[in-house]
Design a protein that fits this description.
Layout lengths: L20 E6 L9 H15 L4 E5 L8 H11 L5 E5 L2 H4 L7 H7 L4 E5 L2 E5 L15 H15 L5 E4 L11 H8 L4 E6 L6 E5 L2 E5 L11 E7 L5 E7 L4 E3 L21 E8 L9 E2 L4 E4 L4 E5 L5 E6 L9 E3 L2 E6 L9 E7 L10 E5 L8 E3 L2 E5 L5 E4 L5 E3 L13 E3 L2 E5 L5 E5 L5 E5 L16 E3 L2 E5 L5 E5 L5 E5 L4 E7 L5 E6 L3 E6 L7 E6 L12 E3 L2 E5 L4 E6 L5 E6 L5 E6 L5 E5 L3 E7 L3
Parallel strand pairs: 1-2, 2-3, 5-6, 6-7, 7-9
Antiparallel strand pairs: 1-10, 4-5, 8-9, 10-11, 11-12, 13-44, 14-15, 15-16, 16-17, 18-19, 19-20, 20-21, 22-23, 23-24, 24-25, 26-27, 27-28, 28-29, 30-31, 31-32, 32-33, 34-35, 35-36, 36-37, 38-39, 39-40, 40-41, 42-43, 43-44
Helix pairs in contact: 2-4
């Protein structure tokens, strides 16, 4: 059915009367220098400057992958808008950022804003996801910012318009919790993007306007216009670039769903909430006899006692995305900035405390923020130094690096076995280095130039002379460990980034985007599936690595579910929902217990024998 235009070739100002607040909203413009959307931007800037809006808000996905070059370029383009302008990041800025999100903050001043215009509180905040694929999630510190902004700016019933990238439903892990906060105030609208479709609906009891992208699936180009009457009525329109102003489609409401009922655990299995951090956590944990170590979104590195109490913490004032690794009495973790601003990134070697002394440590500068994790092997640590360098480090801080190859951003932990270190990077390549000399043995890519298909965030599995990986191209691939020769590629399931190996290297376990766990034999000349287990996760794209420990395989979902599977048979043994955010990682402790972290700051310990 053809939708007739509400107004044809009329300026936005023709719709307005005095005292109204007018906002232009740009969303999902996805600009890279020279691409098709970039070529549309001069016309967008010209139209926005000519309309009668009071200010402009960009609700995320300004770029294709958050690269510094893209961010610098679009910041320069948007500076041509001669109106007050506010921008928040989208998943394309926070997921693949080579600066760990710092370039966006440097250019725009912050990832959030809270202002009052014409008696209306306008509040915008980031929704992630942060440095790995998965659902969006409002960080704990941003939740605190939202609560304080609402209290200060709207505590007496003033109208509020909220801006974020993800709509509150579906792909925002704590969207329902955010809605419960907002419902206590006079929120007249929640404005978002991300879906690349345009509609208006009530989500969790709040009027929600989901904005169109610059270029739609139907080939049209445009943006959105908002008009608030100063009292209670918020209207939304689509503006076709160079053309009509159209109505926005209304859709059926989305109701908040109850938290699923708790599933019973086997009698001799215990899943214990060991600790709940007030900040968000995007790392896994290192576990030793002395304690549990992890990093937070607000820049604290935390050590817990084995009982889960805080033993000590150090504030580095930059978020952590690197899962700590324990080796030779030290805890190694990547830094997204050196203390004192001495380098854009670094690797900290912190002594594992055996007494009351909780300070000290060695700090190795790195050429870029370090978001990847390290792997200990034979008393040394193998780890990417952000982008550019791959290092082998000893516990005294001495390191060697490969000087002949400049690597892209390295995120997943490397696999080190049989004299080879294998890792991927966000430059389309998988690399294999000699574990002793660090010389390049081989590199491989899938033949595609799209960097977002890179094996940048996967822990390879090495077993029976093969390297097995999965990647966002949705293939599982096996390569010859010695030569890098491609042996087979399979897309029988929707693979992505969640992978792990058996303790003997004979099996690779991959979680699919359909919420299955697949066991595949290594060492075979073709894809050989051992078993398939439906985890009951449904659609799932979180990259939580898979862990086998003592005959049990552990997988984590995008919404806080931990599943345990029998390694021999593929039988689902039990599931436990620990929260509403993604499971980051699993670690086996020296006592045989398994530790899991969730983005919402929860640390779990799994103990007991699974039947």
């Amino acid at each position: 059915m053809r939708i007739l235009p509400l107004l044809t070739l009329l300026s936005f100002s023709a719709l307005l009367t005095a005292g109204e607040l007018k906002i232009t909203v740009l969303s999902d413009i996805h600009v890279s220098p020279g691409n098709a959307n970039d070529k549309l931007m001069p016309d967008v800037v010209k139209e926005v400057n000519a309309n009668d809006s009071d200010l402009v808000v960009v609700t995320g996905d300004l770029t294709n992958r958050g690269a510094d070059r893209e961010l610098e370029h679009i910041h320069n383009v948007l500076s041509g808008i001669g109106k007050e302008l506010h921008a928040i990041p989208g998943n394309h800025e926070t997921n693949w950022s080579e600066s760990a999100g710092q370039t966006f903050v440097r250019l725009w001043g912050d990832e959030k804003f809270a202002i009052v215009r014409d008696g209306v509180a306008l509040i915008g905040f980031s929704t992630g996801p942060y440095l790995k694929m998965g659902d969006g999630y409002v960080r704990s510190e941003d939740v605190a910012f939202l609560k304080e902004s609402l209290r200060k700016l709207a505590g007496n019933g003033e109208p509020v318009i909220v801006f974020c990238h993800y709509p509150l439903a579906d792909e925002l892990g704590n969207g329902a919790a955010i809605a419960r906060i907002l419902r206590d105030y006079n929120v007249v609208g929640v404005v978002s993007g991300h879906t690349h479709s345009q509609f208006r609906r009530t989500i969790y009891g709040l009027d929600s306007i989901v904005c169109r992208p610059l270029t739609g699936f139907d080939g049209t180009h445009g943006y959105n216009l908002l008009r608030f009457d100063g009292k209670e009525k918020l209207e939304a329109f689509e503006k076709r670039l160079g053309g009509d102003i159209l109505p926005v489609e209304n859709r059926e409401p989305v109701a908040e769903q109850p938290f699923p009922a708790e599933e019973p655990l086997p009698e001799n299995v215990r899943v214990e909430l060991l600790h709940a951090d007030p900040a968000s956590v995007f790392t896994g944990a290192a576990v030793t006899k002395s304690g549990i170590y992890y990093g937070t979104s607000d820049g604290r590195f935390v050590a817990l006692t084995p009982e889960g109490e805080t033993a000590w913490e150090r504030n580095f004032k930059r978020p952590f995305y690197s899962t700590p690794a324990a080796f030779e009495g030290v805890i190694a973790v990547g830094l997204t900035g050196m203390p004192g601003g001495l380098a854009p990134g670094g690797i900290a070697l912190l002594p594992e405390p055996k007494s009351g002394d909780k300070r000290g440590g060695l700090f190795l500068p790195a050429p870029a923020p370090v978001i990847g994790s390290g792997t200990a092997s034979d008393g040394r640590l193998y780890m990417g130094a952000g982008a550019g360098e791959f290092r082998r480090i000893d516990s005294a801080g001495r390191y060697e690096k490969n000087d002949t190859v400049r690597f892209g951003t390295m995120q997943g932990a490397p696999a080190v076995k049989d004299g080879v270190a294998v890792f991927g990077a966000w430059d389309t390549n998988l690399y294999a280095l000699d574990a002793e000399t660090l010389e390049l043995r081989w590199k491989w890519n899938n033949g595609k130039s799209q960097v977002l298909f890179s094996p940048g965030n996967v822990r390879p599995v090495i077993g029976n002379g093969q390297v097995v990986i999965v990647a966002p191209d949705r293939y599982m691939t096996a390569l010859d460990l010695k030569t890098g020769r491609q042996l087979w590629r399979a897309n029988t399931h929707k693979f992505r980034e969640a992978l792990g190996g058996s303790e003997d290297g004979g099996t690779a376990y991959a979680k699919t985007m359909d919420g299955e766990l697949v066991a595949v034999e290594t060492g075979k000349p073709e894809y050989t599936e051992k078993w398939l287990c439906d985890l009951g996760f449904g659609y799932d794209h979180a990259p939580c690595p898979v862990l086998e420990a003592d005959g049990v395989v552990y997988a984590g979902s995008r919404n806080g579910v931990i599943a345990a599977i029998d390694a021999a048979t593929g039988k689902l043994l039990w599931r436990y929902r620990g929260g509403d955010s993604a499971v980051n990682d699993f670690t086996k402790g020296p006592d045989g217990s398994v530790y899991a972290t969730l983005i919402e700051g929860r640390i779990y310990r799994i103990s007991g024998k699974t039947p």
